[in-house]
Amino acid sequence: KKKKKPAEGAEGETGVAAPASNGIPSKKPHGRMLNPDSFTDSYILCGQTDPPTRPLSTLYEPGTFPLGECVPYPLPELNSYRETSAEKRAMDRLQSDLYDKVRHAAEVHRQVRKYTQSFVKPGIKLIDMCEKIEETNRLLVGENGLNRGIGFPTGCSINHVAAHYTPNPGDETVLQYDDVMKIDFGTQIDGRIVDCAWTVAFNPRYDPLLEAVKDATNTGIAAAGIDVRLCDVGEAIQEVMESYEVELDGKTFPVKCIRNLNGHSIGPYQIHAGKSVPIVKGGDTTKMEEDEMYAIETFGTTGRGYIVEDMECSHYMKNFHAPHIPLRLPRAKKVLAHINKTFGTLAFCRRWLEREDGGSSTVNGMSGKGKQEKYMGALKNLCDVGIIQPYPPLCDIKGSYTAQYEHTLLLRPTCKEVVSRGDDY
Length: 425
What we know:
By secondary structure, the protein is an alpha+beta fold. The chain has 11 helices and 18 strands. The strands form 5 sheets. Strands 1, 8, 9, 10, 11, 17 and 18 form a 7-stranded antiparallel sheet that branches. Strand 6 and strand 7 form a beta hairpin. Helix 4 packs antiparallel against helix 5, helix 6 packs antiparallel against helix 7 and helix 8 packs across helix 11. The longest helix has 24 residues. The radius of gyration is 21 Å and the shape is globular. The chain starts with 10 loop residues before the first helix and ends in a 7-residue tail after the last strand. The N terminus is likely disordered.
């Protein structure tokens, strides 16, 4: 029995990752509404340790990372030729290096989230959970400054908080059995970000809420494609989402779309690249185009269906189009220089600034020189002049519950590839 313990994933005692006991995945997730045939240790089938510690570049040769879910485009009258067109297939092959980077990042995401599903349960401290997720992410992607690493801070928004919450240093929040938590994290390789999220709940009473949002996200993924208008995707999502209701404490709540939250296009080192995918009808008539990358995400709520910024800010990001602005405060110059070399235009959080490595051991080393101290005034100054954008938590009314599911799509010339799809959701 003693020998078997590390194989069960209890790396806390020895700190050593053990190979799986018999090479057959066997562990089930603690959360609800994941696919019933999903195992949290399925990554052992590709030679990964349990808990996962090996960088994926040592498990896969370049060009062999697993494909996502490839599906034909909607609007067959416009797009059916793409599957057989020699020209489109040649264009696909020209982009194979780029697709491989995205698939690499997506496989890292799948393995990190599988491991996450094995240890997230009531009683865990959110700050410990986020640090564990991020350490595993850094390890599996082979963190190397801006070349590869974490795409953005781990979101773990709870209940009425829909997005953009991660614990700041000193936050002692603990996950409860009755909480509904959205885990949203990203992985990037050469700036190609895979953005993917799911909702964790333990109480079966929330199942209809989670089912509504998962169904709405899958509907949005099915509706998306080249030459599809963004507003049509939003209309399809809303119709499915609002066909559900959830009963809590004897009261029935209709599930509403959070109308001012959207999916978005993704560009190199740019998590929000300009196009928004609405989750209600009546939005933008702009069309999706070939070779674009999208995060299709939907949010359902038992509240009013509209979020506002509230609570202490933890997420920040350099404005992608920030002009050169002269800074008077020496400390602001120092913090900006640190942000430029460590995060560039990728999102970051206060926890990362206070790490010994300042957010990246390959950029700043582990000597403690990268650690930022007394930086809040400087960070506020950078926000005030418009170089840095703060992203406070986004909240519905207190007492409501919100859920989220999200996947990343590649609109390839020949087909639509849901790169982040896994056997869990």
